[in-house]
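Example 3.2
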Amino acid sequence: MKLKKITLLTLIYLLNGCGNHSTNSYIKSLENDNNISYEKIKNSRGIYITSMCYTKTKDENSNQISNPCYACHINGKEPNYINDSSLQLEYNFPKEIMKNPFANLFKDRTKAVEAISDSEILEYVQKSNYFDRKGEIVLASSLPDDWRGYRPDCYYNFDDEGFDRDPKGSYTLWRAFRYYPFLGTFWPTNGSTDDVLIRLDKAFSEDNSSDFDKEIYKLNLAIVEAVVKGKDVNLSKAVDESKYGVDLNQK
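Structure, written as tokens:
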């Protein structure tokens, strides 16, 4: 049977089935460049809490009340089972960080900003600090060989379907997609623009012979989309279900 729509119920089944220096010296260089000490940084129970959570919900001049907290703290909907809408009304922080720890955000940078000329700003934004002159990713080449974290590997060279290609034309598995901007200051009308990308593990882009299969990858990406949206997703073309041995649109 061939189909052009994926039904959410069966998606989870297919999704589940289918530098030149050491890290230590690299971290030390970061400490020196930024005048910080990683040894003094404490990983408290509130490490997941962002600076935005300390926002003042009452305007000091007009006394007008706003509720930006509703953007994140809501009654959960599958696959998000967390119900924390109560946090719209209370600062229920771990005791270690009841006081806002983001002191760097309160530094007065007025004079520093005034000292930057328009020409300096234009020169900065018109120059890439991601690629070097040879088109290589700067951070990827500067990270130590034994670096165990993420090494940037997206070339922002997207084809008509949003798939990124490296200089040799191979797929990096990164894919750009249209998205609904997050609430508040993150709207484009407020000056926030960016690219949003997704990449699944390599296994979700391969066939049974471990060879890259773009159609399989697109199908798995559609599955993720359906799970996140919680509804059926239309496919660009019909899929031969017998090829995968799964009834994708079963109810």
